[in-house]
Design a protein that fits this description.
The protein has about 140 residues and is an alpha/beta fold. It is built from three helices and eight strands, in the order E-H-E-E-H-E-H-E-E-E-E.
């Protein structure tokens, strides 16, 4: 495991966990933008248009493009792609690894498969390999 911690503001983390909880039967997904200092700051929910949203996610193309445009207008860069696993652990599935298209982006995976406790883990996925990066909650500066 990589020991380069990824700092996530508590407010943004709570927002991501809340979005996952709103959809206990289907994967939610979207993008996270980072400010000019590289700190994740904004969440951009995108509809999941996968054929089987219970265990797959696919960012709806039009909404993904709109979110990327809005991010650029705000002077942000793509920091992460997030999605939830309603009934699986917070690790990339074979499909997540196979379909990963942004090797520089962090992949945040939120699991609802834990009794009463939500789990979120971060991975960089490149060349069909997933490498975990530890996450640390911070109070926004």
């Amino acid at each position: 495991m990589n020991n380069h911690e990824i700092c996530l503001p508590r407010k943004l983390t709570n927002q991501l966990l809340h979005l996952a909880q709103l959809s206990p039967d289907a994967e939610v997904c979207g993008l996270v933008g980072a400010d000019r200092h590289g700190l994740p700051c904004s969440c951009y929910p995108v509809s999941n248009n996968a054929a089987n949203p219970q265990n797959r996610f696919s960012l709806e193309p039009g909404q993904q493009i709109a979110a990327m445009k809005l991010m650029r207008e705000k002077g942000q860069n793509l920091f992460a792609i997030y999605h939830s696993h309603p009934a699986a652990p917070a690790v990339p599935s074979a499909a997540d690894i196979e379909q990963a298209g942004y090797p520089d982006a962090l992949h945040l995976i939120i699991s609802l498969n834990t009794k009463g406790v939500l789990e979120m883990r971060g991975f960089k996925i490149a060349d069909s390999q997933a490498e975990e990066f530890p996450l640390r909650l911070i109070e926004h500066a």
